[in-house]
Write a structure and sequence with these properties.
The N and C termini lie close together (11 Å). The mean pLDDT is 77. The chain has a domain of 26 residues. 86% of the residues lie in helices and 0% in strands. The protein has 2 helices and no strands. Keywords: Membrane, Transmembrane, Transmembrane helix.
Length: 44
């Protein structure tokens, strides 16, 4: 599960570094990640 978080972080940071990211990319990605983690925690 930590690998998933790391991968997500790298994707988001790479977008931010390239200057392409606005909140339109980062916020939905973070919200999606939070929802995913909530579901994962329920399974554990």
């Amino acid at each position: 599960m930590i690998l998933i978080i790391t991968a997500f972080s790298k994707i988001i940071w790479s977008y931010m570094d390239s200057g392409q990211a606005g909140l339109t990319i980062v916020v939905p990605a973070l919200l999606g990640l939070m929802e995913f983690l909530k579901n994962e925690m329920k399974l554990l």
